Amino acid sequence: MRLLKLLILFITIQVSAQQGGMWIPSLLEGMNEQEMTNLGSKLTAKDIYDVNNSSLKDAIGHFNGGCTTEIISGKGLILTNHHCGFSQIQSHSSLENDYLKDGFWAMNLEEELPNEGLFVEFIVSIEDVTTQVLSGITDTMTEKEKQSSIDKNSNAIQKQTKTEAWQATKVKSFYQGNQYFLFVTERFEDIRLVGAPPSSIGKFGSDTDNWVFPRHTGDFSLFRIYADENNHPAKYSKTNKPYKPKHHLPVSLDGIEEGDFTLVFGFPGRTNEYLPSVAIEHITQEYNPSNIAIREAALKVIDAKMKSSDATRIKYASKQARIANAWKKWIGENLGIEKSNAVVNRKTFENNYAKALKTKKLDKKYGHILPEFDRLYGDFSKINIKRRNFIEVFLVTNELMQMTFRAYQMETAAKTNPNSFENAKAALVSRLKGIHKNYDVQVDKDVYKAVMPLYSNNVDISIYDKTAFTDLKSALQLLEGSPKEVFKKLNKDVAYKYAKPLIEEFINTIDAEFQKKNTSISALQKQYMKALMEALPNARYFPDANSTLRVTYGQVRGYSPRDAVYYQPVSYLDGIMEKYIAGDYEFDVPKKLRDLHASKDYGQYADSNGKVPVCFLGTNHTTGGNSGSPAIDAQGNLIGLNFDRVWEGTMSDMNYDPEICRNIMVDLRYILFIVDKYAGATHLIDEMTLVHPKKK
Ligand code: ARG
Ligand code: GLU
């Protein structure tokens, strides 16, 4: 019994020690390959990334610069999240064709809908160019001089790199500027909407379920990449053809069970894994709470108004979702940091690091870093909070302040460069129109009343009664006439007069001071990264996310969010029916789906227990930008679609902990079930490659 316990402990430690991290796909040979094998993978590093032969990476695209997408057929069919395609789906929607509400399915190529501006980018190759980028950089240079040399060297490398006409290059910094990589990319710009479920499936559970498990959201949408007659990237043209990819992911029909290997391949946006404890304290104890408070004050107003009026509900749906998404994430982040004792643990770690510096005789070179962090953060925290609070009030929550801010940007741009007046004005007009499309002055005024006191003592509600900005027509009239006339009218507007000193204080004092202090912190963070790697060379170091292609791996696993509670790793269609509330805007279920559940018409998509799986959990280390990333099985087949993390685990951006950090994926069988049985879009199923890797 004792032995068994020890063995289990040993296995758990083994498993946890090998997870976490977002790795560079071209550098998986060796340690990562071994760790993946230990977790059950049958893939080699070359199966995942190969420059000379087709590999998994050829199927993974960066969707519009923010999300991830993957190719799932030989005809350029791609899969991403519903929330990633949301604005495209919305832009094709009207009262007659409400694709957001009812879903959309192109039944043939002709019905697929083009999307202006939407692009998907693939990685052709990744190359370490650190030596070239850092050549000529010396310790005596200032940070500014260093950066300008780095930029010059990077530009030279990009110029020297031979590429095809349709390819592009970029150089990106890793390990806070200690390593640099060159990327050759291909960007496709003719991307058409193929299918989207109704929001009652694609956004099922909405904000209540956002960031939590058990989850039952079918968060997917389908697009298709079109290419020119040579199969190369091209602007939209009617004559373009479906893209024939180098690789597309086969789709497994055999599903997953607890302990199965999972690999998530995508474009994570931003993490901060190597922060000193003083930074984590600052973020979770001061910075997050102040921003949470501002959003909470705004949400209280917006939520109440949305509940009392359908018109307001529709107008503010997307804005509310944006505000609520990060609000809820930050609360979870704080919970997780506290629950996992992250600050204390990081302090213990820092003590060990300091000891290692001494043993390795590195303390002379690096011993100043941690005390210097304490000093810099002591100096930085106030301005960091003030700056972010301004952004939360002026750019995230209050719309009148946002309009004055944009108008101020127009005025300064046109005054610095008189030739830019027309362009700056056009940009402002489009901003104002965008805001007024979904504007309710009563809501905004109450938001102002709620949030401004959290930023400034200077609160004046009367500006709402006299400003021109709260009405689109009168706002546009402000912008009529010569530049001189426009500036004059603008500066007479009460709201503009009120906001201008606050905006100027922000730009000239707050942001300027922030930038200066932030540069010092970044420079120190770069030294700290280097010091860590020298002092503790045997630890696993992965570079922080920076919107480049990464591999993360783990296993299907449940978790315990709190005492006596355990979450099974898989949710089922039955759970959708448990949550169903007729007519509710978060938990309604379409009749067709209820009927399919009642008749158990599940086709080939049910699990061996006879139930249709909907979502599942894994220990993959993901972040924002991994939305739409494929979850891939031990053989390279598609099994899931990443779209979220569990609440307590969102701290993984600073502190990945395999005990409670879980990513949430839609089970591919649920997606196929919806496409086939719900939408009847069987032609899409037919073009995929369905496989049975578990059946011998
Ligand atoms: N939490 C996920 C992400 O960070 C999903 C967001 C979309 N869903 C929503 N209810 N807002 O982006
Ligand atoms: N929903 C997030 C996204 O849009 C992914 C969730 C996360 O932050 O892990 O990328």
Question: What this model shows, in words?
Answer:
The chain is α+β, with helices and mostly antiparallel strands and 696 residues long. It starts with a helix and ends in a 5-residue tail after the last strand. Helix 10 packs antiparallel against helix 12, helix 15 (399-416) runs antiparallel to helix 16 and helix 15 (399-416) packs across helix 21 (494-535). The longest helix has 42 residues, at 494-535. The strands form 4 sheets. Strands 1, 2, 3, 4, 5, 6, 7, 8, 9, 10 and 11 form an 11-stranded antiparallel β-sheet that branches. It has a 7-stranded antiparallel β-sheet with strand order 14-13-19-20-21-18-17. Strands 12-22 form a two-stranded parallel ribbon. Arginine is lined by residues 83, 206-207, 210-211, 321, 325, 624, 627, 644.
